[in-house]
């Protein structure tokens, strides 16, 4: 019985081969395999692109975050500048007042120093005149000589 079944199977195989059924089946199987390979290659290429796309999207996201942070920073700096503008103006006014006060005291000191120098010069001239008069009285024979006093 087994031999009969084996013979029947072989006979059916020969019939399928001779009729071309087995060849069509093999071709269709080969085409299925080829389609699967192509689809696998497409998926593989897509998977290779995914990390690049992920990296690019991450970079874009980071750039967007950095731009947002820069914008917030600029807005904060502008707000700080606006906040300190009145204080800066007051500080400038105070500095001008201090400079004007210092200039005024400097002018007063210069005037006082000039007056002091004039007083010292006048006193030195008086002393020089007195000493020359004294020397003229002690030595009437000689002609009067003028002494030059140092001026500070």
Secondary structure topology:
Elements: H1 2-19, H2 21-138
Coiled coil: 30-116
Region (Disordered): 129-152
Keywords: Coiled coil
How would you summarize what this structure contains?
This protein has 152 residues and is mainly α. It has helices spanning 2-19, 21-138. The chain has one domain (2-138).
Shape: rod-shaped
Average predicted local confidence, pLDDT: 86
Radius of gyration (Å): 58 Å
Number of helices: 2
Distance between the termini: 150 Å
Oligomeric form of this entry? single chain
Give the uncertain stretches in residue-range form: none
Instruction: Please report the total strand number as a whole number.
Output: 0
Keywords: Coiled coil
Folded structure, characterized:
The protein is rod-shaped. With about 150 residues, the protein is mainly α. It has helices at about 1-20, 20-140. The mean pLDDT is about 85. It has one domain (about 1-140). It has two helices and no strands.
List keywords for this structure.
152 residues, mainly alpha, coiled coil
């Amino acid at each position: 019985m087994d031999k009969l079944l084996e013979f029947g199977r072989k006979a059916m195989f020969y019939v399928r081969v001779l009729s071309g059924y087995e060849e069509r089946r093999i071709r269709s199987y080969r085409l299925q395999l080829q389609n699967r390979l192509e689809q696998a290659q497409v998926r593989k290429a897509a998977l290779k692109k995914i990390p690049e796309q992920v990296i690019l999207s991450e970079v874009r996201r980071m750039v967007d975050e950095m731009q947002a942070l820069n914008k917030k920073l600029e807005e904060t700096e502008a707000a700080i500048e606006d906040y300190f503008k009145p204080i800066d103006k007051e500080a400038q006014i105070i500095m001008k007042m201090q400079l004007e006060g210092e200039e005024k005291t400097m002018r007063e000191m210069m005037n006082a120093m000039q007056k002091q120098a004039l007083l010292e010069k006048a006193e030195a001239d008086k002393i020089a005149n007195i000493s020359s008069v004294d020397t003229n009285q002690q030595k009437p024979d000689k002609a009067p000589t003028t002494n030059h006093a140092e001026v500070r």
